[in-house]
Hints:
single chain, mainly alpha, 434 Repressor (Amino-terminal Domain), Lambda_DNA-bd_dom_sf, Cro/C1-type_HTH
Amino acid sequence: MTKAHAEDLEATINETIxxxxxxxxxxxxxxxxxxxxxxxxxxxxxxxxxNWKINDLPVVADYxxxxxxxxxxxxxxxxxxxxxxxxxxxxRAT
Length: 94
């Protein structure tokens, strides 16, 4: 994977997680708690200032009721597959 592809994937993941947070009515603090971090580091990841840890992505995917592959495929692909979580739903805590 080239650096450009890695950066594109990172941007896709960031955008997807931000859109999922908005769609479900969750807060960044909710996602951070599931990851065992504070909101600050999560915000830095979502802004692209810090990289995701590969082990965190399946946790985030599960939190939103998705698979790792779905999360990394992007929001549009998730929507096209009919796999978006319902608006304002409460994702299960893990």
